[in-house]
Specification:
This is Serine palmitoyltransferase 2. One of its GO terms (molecular function) is serine C-palmitoyltransferase activity. It comes from Desmophyllum pertusum. Keywords: Acyltransferase, Membrane, Transferase, Transmembrane, Transmembrane helix. By secondary structure, this protein is mainly α. About 55% of the residues lie in helices and about 5% in strands. It contains 10 helices and 4 strands. A two-stranded antiparallel sheet has the order 1-2. A two-stranded antiparallel ribbon has the order 3-4. Strand 3 and strand 4 form a beta hairpin. Helix 7 runs antiparallel to helix 8. About 5% of the residues are buried.
């Protein structure tokens, strides 16, 4: 805060919003520049680009320069936002829910809306028990595994606990399975990297929202709001989540109302 000259930001956004906003903007810019320096292999602001040097653009036209910069930016953003396979897993699971989960017995053609229903059908009708991977707590589809003697899975932890209390009351079950089967603690450097990478992601999201508002790009703003809705719901900001959900619902009411909401600059 002292380096940016926004010491009043210490008071928080409720007391001095403008100073806090300026500080967060400068901090986001610093994160972007620092990450880009690591991306291109620069050791300092005056250093050379060692890992991704700028090619000779003497004979390039404007379109070629744009295409090169676009590709470099795309690779940079992929490194920032695609650190895990969560997006791919979400897409795979979403497609599976839309298409339905088919019974994995060769002679059975039944389909089910949930993976847990399919597993129950396979075990009770066909006696088929399939190892769907994952860990001791969840399978590869993200469904909760029964911690008793059966091999059923459940969409939520609540339904799993209810099943265990009714079907396996005599089985001793750990109260915090995720804590017992958690991954090995990461090093301090990993924690620091994860924090700064998360700060960079949130900062770039906010920058994208502000830029979409300035440009009047309603479609891009809606895509950003979809991402914000997940954060609002995750951290129990129910009023913000409800307002965003209401915005999405109203946007689907009619083409005219949707266009007014998308491009309303008031």
């Amino acid at each position: 805060m002292n380096r940016t000259g926004k010491s009043n930001a210490k008071k928080g956004p409720d007391v001095d919003y403008n100073a806090f906003r300026d500080f967060t903007d400068r901090e986001t810019e610093a994160h972007i520049i620092t990450r880009w320096m690591v991306f291109v292999g620069m050791t300092d602001m005056e250093g050379d680009l060692t890992t991704r040097p700028i090619p000779d653009t003497t004979d390039w036209d404007l379109q070629m320069k744009r295409e090169w910069l676009y590709k470099e930016t795309q690779v940079f953003l992929n490194e920032v936002f695609l650190q895990t396979t969560v997006p791919e897993n979400v897409i795979m699971l979403d497609d599976a829910h839309k298409q339905g989960f088919s019974c994995r017995t060769p002679d059975c053609e039944m389909q089910f809306p949930l993976h847990s229903t399919r597993v129950r059908h396979e075990q009770q009708r066909h006696g088929l028990i399939t190892d769907d991977g994952g860990d001791d707590n969840r399978d590869s589809y993200g469904y909760y595994k029964c911690r008793g003697p059966c091999s059923l899975v459940f969409a939520t932890n609540v339904t799993r606990k209810r099943h265990e209390s009714v079907q396996h009351p005599d089985v001793e079950i750990a109260t915090n399975p995720e804590d017992q089967h958690s991954e090995e603690p990461t090093s301090e450097s990993d924690l620091i990297f994860n924090y700064h990478n998360a700060r960079l992601q949130i900062g770039m999201l906010l920058v994208d929202i502000v830029d979409a508002i300035k440009e009047g790009d309603g479609y891009r703003l809606v895509n950003c709001y979809k991402f914000v809705l997940l954060f609002a719901y995750k951290f129990r900001n129910t009023k913000y989540a409800y307002a965003l959900l209401l915005f999405f619902v109203l946007n689907l009411c009619s083409a005219f109302k949707g266009r007014v909401l998308l491009f309303n600059r008031k």
